[in-house]
Amino acid sequence: MTGRVALDDLAHSSREAIEKLLDENARLRNQLAAAQQLVGELELIADSDPLTPLPNRRAFVREFERAVAHVARHATPIAVMFVDLNRLKSVNDQHGHNAGDAALIHVAKVLSDHVRATDVVARIGGDEFGLVLYRLDQAAAKEKADMLVRQIAQTPIPVEGGMIEVGVSIGSTIITSEDSFATALARADIAMYCAKRG
């Protein structure tokens, strides 16, 4: 009988140990899920512009690198645009920083509303935005840039004390499979300055 009692005690001890391991496993899985959710939230914060609902420069660079890889694999045209909000400093000086923020948010919205869901719009600097536009050759990119300039110019922004109008200058270039972020953005930046002059 003592052998039977010993076996029963062993079985009971084993069940308790297994239950403890299962409980610990469930607890660790819950902690892992919570940690993964937190990492996802932190990545989203790290990739988001704090003012506009757009990705920031860090996220834009990553999307640009994906676009370069896409061009290398599929040989489809992809345009990158550099957008500069004209005279933001004078908006801030004349109407205050809230008006300047409203102008940035307005431009972000107009840009986002007039591109496809597969395209990327990001705020990459103080008054600068970047766009990656898939399946767009140089002629189509020029048409898109002209349309965006018109849309932004035609939609005044309500601010305290009235309405203000803002404008943008846009330069574009077609991404090549050899491009780095710096080289493509430099070409788009030069095109933007040419557009700004005239």
From TrEMBL:
Gene3D superfamilies linked? 3.30.70.270
What sort of enzyme, by top EC class, is this? transferase
| Listed GO MF terms | diguanylate cyclase activity
Q: What is its EC number?
A: 2.7.7.65
| SMART domains given in the database record | GGDEF (SM00267)
- What catalytic reaction does the record list? 2 GTP = 3',3'-c-di-GMP + 2 diphosphate
What span is annotated as the signal peptide, if there is one?
A: none
Q: Which UniProt keywords apply?
A: Coiled coil
Q: What is any Pfam family matched here?
A: GGDEF
Taking every annotated instance into account, which residue ranges of this chain make up the domain GGDEF?
A: 76-198
Q: Which NCBIfam families match?
A: GGDEF (TIGR00254)
Its protein name is diguanylate cyclase
